[in-house]
Write a structure and sequence with these properties.
The structure holds 2 protein chains of 2 kinds.
Chain A lengths: L1 E12 L7 E9 L3 E5 L6 H8 L7 E9 L2 E2 L5 H7 E4 L3 H4 L5 H12 L3 H14 L15 H13 L5 E5 L7 H18 L2 E5 L3 H7 L2 E6 L3 E6 L1 H6 L5 H4 L4 H8 L10 H9 L19 E11 L6 E11 L3 E6 L5 H8 L7 E6 L2 E2 L13 E4 L12 H8 L23 H13 L5 E5 L7 H16 L3 E6 L2 H7 L2 E6 L2 E6 L1 H7 L6 H6 L9 H10 L2
Chain B lengths: L8 H16 L4 H19 L2 H6 L4 H13 L6 E5 L2 E4 H27 L2 H9 L3 H31 L7 H32 L17 H22 L18 H34 L1
Antiparallel strand pairs in B: 1-2
Helix pairs in contact in B: 1-5, 1-9, 2-5, 2-10, 4-5, 6-7, 7-8, 9-10
Classes of the chains: A alpha/beta, B mainly alpha.
Amino acid sequence: MEILTVRDLSFRYTLGTEDALKGVSFGVEEGDLVAVSGPTGCGKSTLLRMLKKELTPAGELSGQVLLDGVPIGQIDAKTAAASIGFVMQRPEHQIVTDKVWHELAFGLENMGYPQDVIRRRVSEIASYFDIENWFEMDVADLSGGQKQLLNLASIMVMQPRILILDEPTSQLDPIAASDFLTTVQKLNSDMGLTVIIVEHRLQEVVPAANRLLIMDRGGRLLHYGKPREVCARLRERQDLLMAMPSTVRLFSAMDGRGECPLTISEGRQWIGGFGCEKQPVFDPSSESSAPLALEMDDVWFRYGRNGHDVLRGTKLAVHEGELFCILGGNGSGKTTCLGAVAGLNKPYSGKVRIFGKDIKEYRNQELYRNCLTMLPQDVQTIFLRNTVREELADAGEAAKDLPYDIESLMDKHPYDLSGGEQQLVALAKVLATKPRLLLLDEPTKGIDASAAARIVGILKKLRDGGMTIVIVTHDVEFAAMAADRCAMFFRGEVTSTGAPREFFSENNFYTTAVNRLTRGWFHGCITHEDAIQALRLQG
Amino acid sequence: MKSFKDHNPIAVFIYYLFVIVPVMFCTNPVLVCISLFFGIAFRMAKDGAGALKKLLPFAVFPVISMIVNPLFVHKGVTVLFILNDNPVTLEALRYGLTIGLIICSTVVWFSSFNSIMTTDKLLYVFGSVSPKIALILSMALRYIPLYGQQIKKIRQAQQVTGLYKEDNAIDKIRGGMRIMSVMVSWALENGIITADSMTARGYGVGRRSRFSIFGWQKSDKALMAATAVLGLAAVLAIGLGKLAYVWYPQIVTPGASPAAVVCYAAYALLGAIPVYLQLKEEARWRSLQSEI
């Protein structure tokens, strides 16, 4: 039976000139897991907000959203709030109170439930989500992944019938993101909870989903149906395919016949069918012989006198004109390492040399003048004006000097931009200092595949112009596409370095989806293009 | 059976009120000494003999007060000696000592109060006045570390992007203004998310109830009752002036009048409660442990 029905839904924001949604109709069965995808600005988030009465923005609305056949506008406020749960992007800002237990109880307090009911529900949910150990903690002391799980738990405690998630893992590292999505899947399969989710990480969501909804620019619904069938219908749309799991992309690129593989194991079986007799030959990578732009020699650092060592004899060498990616898990010290290079963290032992000169010999901001600049992870920390134009003027940067085009964003508020666009504007600001060494911290956090591909292009262009770029990232797909060399960071040390092809081919777990797909069949395939080249060889 | 600190925060809060306040309103050295004794005893029972070392610096209060009071107050009949043509009297000295001991005992009790009454417990106590206040306080406590972290991030970001000069004091002030300005728009923009998250979870649909992890058990009620009986007895005696000392010109003590003795005994029993609960809990735990 259909739990949620959307009928011919159109919407235009109060000040908007175009429809954000146009004639969208679909139905969701009880227990469905619906994955929603589409290009940036296609109205995915708007659509989700239409389904949650309390969050519906102001504007002109036509059409209907029915919950169990009743228009959601007619459902009483308490039932509406409890029966549809909504999780958003930024974990910190959805949390209202200071204690984990209070956050769990917040929704139930709003409903006016008595103490003993709240106690029972809260304890039940805390044990289901395995948060008993941090039940009495301050929310400020939780990690990003824990915060987002808390947000999910504090919605599940209200026993919703439909759970709506708007890019819930965009601010999380891959492991926390994977944990979160596993929990969502478990709720769907264990409890029969109906889930509607917008996600960038479709590799994990699409195989678990039983419905895939594709939106297109202009707020139109393009496809809605079983994931395999929808994926098969995307052949003509390269831009939409970009976001799909790599198995789907490969299958489409090779014009595959039959059932579209969704998971890595299905994909491997499909690739095995090619025979795999001819091995692709890739250009050998060569190490740069340019002088060193950055050198770290036996660097030790800890945050407080009594803290533990975060950098433990770090050794690192980056040549001028290199695009260098530092990969590693959470808490491995890679961001701290970047902070040491940027002069934020002062090591207690060892040397950091920037362009051959000890970092301690750079006086009075000399380090930051035409020398080194760092784009912080949270780019909102550097926006201080009302429009992008003012931001650039503030930094003294002319839009026409940029190696990329942001003309269309000039009159928007920086906070209104998508994650990818915010990265581009922030990058434009820091490029104003004409750096020779650019440091980036997680530049692909929270942005979709096509925006990431655009950033790769821009960074390569900057590198070709002679800039040295050092990037700290969790994103292996990005590193495989972008880097000249990669380094693995573990427990405050660099444990391996190498050109991406060798680096990822030798890793078993910490590697790209394409590498996992082709491992054992082909050697050295790490990107989508590599795999296509290899498969085409087989004829 | 639970130790003193695990009792319901309201009971604990009221206990502290009754143990600290009467001493402050009656300069009675006997009462002060009882208070100080049990204050210290509780710290030692709770934190071990090492607590004594931490409390030692508080001894400056009675010492200083004992020295300073006679230098400024020259009332009293028992002159000890003459300093700069002014008499230094025994009465002023003893009064100073008593006042110093009052301060000292208050500080000692507060030292255990601070470690027991964490913010969430205080929140619970004040929140019991109104759920609205409880929520506002809780949100404020949530925002303080959040904003603190963000300000640090913004400061670092402004430094490493190298966009702004930091050569002199004026640049530094400008930097501070910039941080404030970034902070304000950041807080407003992201506050919308918090507001959405609140409405999405039904904030404002009706009368809120209030959940807390602290319950009222038998032992909490017992603590409340004991505090009320003993505390009120002490307060009554003090209120009726049964414990009043006359300090100047000559010290007149209330002596061992029946009312005074009852009051001292009641207050001593009151002061002994936390020590008793703590020691009993530990003894119980030791005997249980030996059975494990």
